[in-house]
Amino acid sequence: MRTKARQRPWLAMALLGFAAPAWAxxxxxxxxxxxxxxxxxxxxxxxxxWFPIGIYVDCGVGLDQQLSVVGEFNDAFRTVTIPSLPTxxxxxxxxxxxxxxxxxxxKQARPFVQALIGLGRARGSGNVNGMNVSASSTAAAYxxxxxxxxxxxxxxxxxxxxxxxxxxxQTEFYMxxxxxxxxxR
Length: 185
Description:
The protein is mainly beta.
């Protein structure tokens, strides 16, 4: 008759053998991938001005299947032309970091919410009477967004997101469309 101490290693190996196929299954487009890189198009509305041209780049490091630490850079551009005044080039930039919580369960889409904090910068430049003039302002930035990564291939997903940013006393609404690439470390 076997002792309990001798039975336990066999029981543990049997349980691991049954659990291994479950570990290999993917729970979504970015499931267990600890590092995700995303890049794409961004449009935003700040106060009463629409910024139709923008880019974003972000990188997330998964702490587990649902929680990631995220760093993100955004830059939006606009040229304003007013009759009898100089043309002004405007840009809004933001560098933020924080956390992203992703839902699990779907193999085709992975919704998420995120809360980020960092710095935002507004810049403007133009030519007045032959003289180049520019100004900028930097302030604390708070970014609250939501979106989803929709599976597009084995190693890629389409990211669709939107949210609100607060930079200083200014509120911005943004929309993003891009592609994300989950990778393994």
